[in-house]
Amino acid sequence: MSTKKDDRRKVRLRVLRQDAPDKPSSRRFEEVEVDLHPSMTVHDCLEAVRRRPVNVKGAAIAPIAWEASCLEETCGACTMMIQGRPRQACATLVSEVSPKGQPIVLEPLGKFPVERDLIVDRAKMFDALTRVRAWVKLDGSASPAPAEGQGAQQGRYELSSCIACGACLEACPEVHDGSAFVGAAALNEVRALNLHPVGRLDRGERLEAIMGDGGVADCGKAQNCVEVCPKAIPLVDSIGELSRETTWRWLFGWRR
Amino acid sequence: MSLASPGPALRSEGGKLRRVAVVGAGVAGMATALELARARVPVDVLSLLPAKRAPSVASRGGVNAALDVNGEGDSPRQHFEDTIRVGESLAHQPLVSAMCEAAPDIVHLLDRMGVPFHRTGEGRPAARRLPGSSHARAAFAGATTGHAAVSALDQQLRRFEGEPCVDARGVEIPGEPLVRRLEHVELVGLVQDDAGVCVGVVTQDLRAMTVKATPYDAVVLATGGFAGLFAGGAASALSLGTAAAAAYRQGAVFANAELIEHHPTATHGHGRATIVSSAARAEGGRLWVPRDPKDLRAPRDIPERERDYFLERLYPSFGNLVAHDVAARAIHRLCVREGGGVRDPRSGESERAVYLDLVHRAARLEPGQLRGVVDVTTRLGAGDPLAGPVKVFPAASATLGGLWVDFEKGEAGRPVRGSPRNHATSVPGLYAVGEVEHQYHGAQRLPGNALLASIFGASLCAQAVASYRGAMARSAYDLPRSIFEKSEKQRADEYAAALAGPKGGGEPLSPYALLDELRAALADGCGVERDDDGLARAEAKLAELDERRAAVEVTDSSSRSNQAAALARALPDLIDLGRLVVACAKRRDESRGAHARASHDARDDGRHLAATLARRAPDGTPRFLDAVEYTCVGATVHVSAAIDTSVVGPLAREVPRPHGSGRVSAPPAKDREPKRPARAERGGADKKDRPAPEDEEA
Ligand SMILES: Cc1cc2nc3c(=O)[nH]c(=O)nc-3n(C[C@H](O)[C@H](O)[C@H](O)COP(=O)(O)OP(=O)(O)OC[C@H]3O[C@@H](n4cnc5c(N)ncnc54)[C@H](O)[C@@H]3O)c2cc1C
Ligand code: FES
User: Fold this and answer.
1) pLDDT by residue (tens digit) across B541-551?
2) Is B239 helix (H, G, I), strand (E, B) or coil?
3) Which of A158, B60, B362, B383 is the most exposed place for a label (fewest CB within 10 A)?
4) Contact A130 B158 (CB under 8 A)
5) ipTM
6) What is the pTM of this model?
7) Could you tell me the CA-to-CA distances from B242 to B47, B188, B329 in Å, in that order?
8) Measured between CB atoms, does A127 come within 8 Å of chain B?
9) What domains are defined for chain B?
């Protein structure tokens, strides 16, 4: 906790709002102000607004809608654009994004359909996991898993911390309305499963799934995804590795 | 579960596909749905948000299973005894015993699904010793085990979403996947037939705000706990207990609502807390306060000998690894009752916190071992516990009580798999599993047992539901539509009323403001230590809130994602649930596990070796029961509130709570010989001397 004296007493938010998915014309910025407390997060600011929903002019407004669950940057629900960058509202301190007391600009993620205010519909992220067949085919037995080395586990652990927040899709130039690209998160999941001692058994199926349209070849190597990943997952490495594996499979698929 | 038998018809007489509903997509809900899918029972999984957002992701420390990878002589029996001791004998022993025996297979299952468990040199899941355990027993994935379990279960569920329903003759039913997910919906009520049997759910679409009743042959609640009702707590924003409260309103019996777990090491946040996982203590974290309560120096400037490692002093054998309730109460006593703890250097006021220190371990931890602890506390501005001591204090984190559920004990004294009584609530056709139900932990949870109980319970519950569905005389899908229309209208009217705004009750107030007051009242009256004044205050406050709820005003008239209106609709139920908690806390006039009564310091097995059972009376107040009587597959079942202690009898706990007038703070320096215990590494995973399970003096 910061015990440093904080002499600013209010923080101003500029929030891009929209009333419903079918009301794009309702898009507008709304300015609100809340009392500042030490170690306050953007989530806390939004909570303060909904307790007393008025704008800076003192007019009553509808509370601002956003999603939240874990409140500790583990579930991805509260991801939004904060000062132009995809971040988790629950883990973003006001002092970090408004060090000099500048207004904090909040917008919904731009690569997903807006549901209301800061809520977007991220169904396509989850659909991508189905497209890449991101699962292990367990049988009904109760046997122990095959052994795995400590180094292998650590590598897989790195890759498995995705919180499905959508930041990597948001930052990716290849993800847009006209593209079928599954995105870095789903590709990374393929790599993680292909490294698992059981998941490895059907790695071929997963590789096939990312060899076609919208697959790994659609990556334009902008490398923005690693920059914004809150869990610092080595997404570019994952994509590079899968590119090699799919190429190999395309050339010599009959051997593996 | 045998898949060979043709099983019950897949379609109702009217030709509808007979589904069951699992409400909740956390670890418990997903594991139940998977088990049902494997038994070929068509299932819908309903949740407030997609599964990857479930509160279960916050679970960190690990999953207990006596695999004994460290060769310490651990066994399921030891696991069982630790569970019973820490839970102060308030859990049914045959169930706990079966759970501990199944635990190794559950860890293997998660391992095979892809949970990246930390490894031993031989490539097996490694184990850490979590607080309260006598052995290193928790398999863990960094300090993000819950997140990893959620991801793996979510993947498995996705696999079954792609599979069709197949009838007894092996014919696929087109357009009917075995598993369907319905996300962004809230359960707002149960549909009950004239006999009170649960035959479906009423849900609200949280985007379109429409209210709908849907038939289901059976309904499983896996909706998690309600620790979100406590101010300053560390629970998920989804953990308000709206579904449990709705079931309680409709007659489901509640058990042990007073048992609220307080995690001892939460860090500062604004109006709420974030837990520093038990993994931190498991990996050698030590708790201390300055010996001199007036010491205002920065923690790093306080030399070793001027620090009081109070848990090590009070509990030489378990040290920092005492269970959560023991640690929480010691911190509470020290900081609140005795005015000690860390002080704000500017004001000199007590911050009601102690230091958690991992600095001495920093060099010895393997990469990733505390990931998910360090990064989150650092990002939230609480500091990096590996770099310097961080301030921690107790915060409400989970609920131990919940909907009462049954289990059937067989001849060998073990739960009967496949009995429709397992996990049945007192409402026929309604089942409950995971944190929403009461039966696996007793009065305090053994850390690392929650995920385990969710998954073990899921398999027992899914089999029970399959049996129940198989034995149904008439499918819910063949009931007259009017039953559903009536429920739907009732709930839609409630929502419309919430939206319409104040109906008196004084000054209009926002639903969030009322929720804040409710949360503050519960934290005040039912915190770490409950005193009679606090309970009376909370009771009065809740009665007042019940009056004032009529004044709740929703300033948002939108018919799209109207979060304020959804909360306003749920508030009456939540107030009733709050009143239940306070009433149960008053009724249990003893101290046991997470429930500490200032005026009744001792555990009283003579009067209280039983669940606190209550059902809602028409005026909203709880009516206490000595037994539950309900109908299960045509038979009347009578179950008393007494706890089944048939395996080992009631056990004393491993170390007693701080109690009586005994002080927790260190005596003044002059009265004490300056002995330095040779326990600098106390509580580490590398600890050699295992504590005796006997009591030790406080
Ligand atoms: C900080 C923290 C650390 C923990 N650490 C550990 C640990 O190390 N080891 C351990 O074993 N346990 C731990 N636990 C406890 C454990 O995480 C939980 O007990 C367990 O995950 C609960 O799982 P669940 O599936 O029952 O419920 P949840 O994960 O809470 O899921 C509830 C589900 O129900 C849905 N839902 C809720 N209400 C409704 C409604 N009205 N309508 C529709 N859907 C609804 C939600 O959307 C969600 O999908 C920890 C808990 C916390 C908070
Ligand atoms: S609420 Fe879960 S990441 Fe912010």
Assistant:
1) 999 999 999 99
2) coil
3) B362
4) yes
5) 0.95
6) 0.94
7) 12, 8, 29
8) no
9) 7-173+180-207+215-230+240-257+400-483 (3.50.50.60), 262-395+658-688 (3.90.700.10), 489-610 (1.20.58.100)
